[in-house]
Write a structure and sequence with these properties.
Number of domains: 1
Radius of gyration: 15 Å
Protein name: Putative MbtH family protein
Distance between the termini: 61 Å
CATH class: Alpha Beta
Helix content: 25-40%
CATH architecture: Alpha-Beta Complex
Organism: Roseibium aggregatum (strain ATCC 25650 / DSM 13394 / JCM 20685 / NBRC 16684 / NCIMB 2208 / IAM 12614 / B1) (Stappia aggregata)
Strand content: 25-35%
Largest sheet: 3 strands, antiparallel
Order of helices and strands: EEEHH
Structural class: alpha+beta
CATH superfamily: Structural Genomics, Unknown Function 30-nov-00 1gh9 Mol_id
Domain MbtH-like: 8-58
Pfam family, one: MbtH
Length: 74
Amino acid sequence: MGETAMTNPFDDPDGIFHVLVNDEEQHSLWPEFVPIPEGWRSVFGPGKRQDCVDYVNENWTDIRPKSLRDAALS
């Protein structure tokens, strides 16, 4: 019985993605064909997966939620 391996669309190296950000400034890669969930907005893309990963690596340098970063400064 042959099984076809399914690629998770969030892990597809050939997929087209957006980089999403929420109010806590957390980032997420999001496949272009999936509707953007409420509470998130696109800040980069659509683009190739690696371009989106590079954007996240360059722009999300402190992975703590914004509320924790703000509390640490108080």
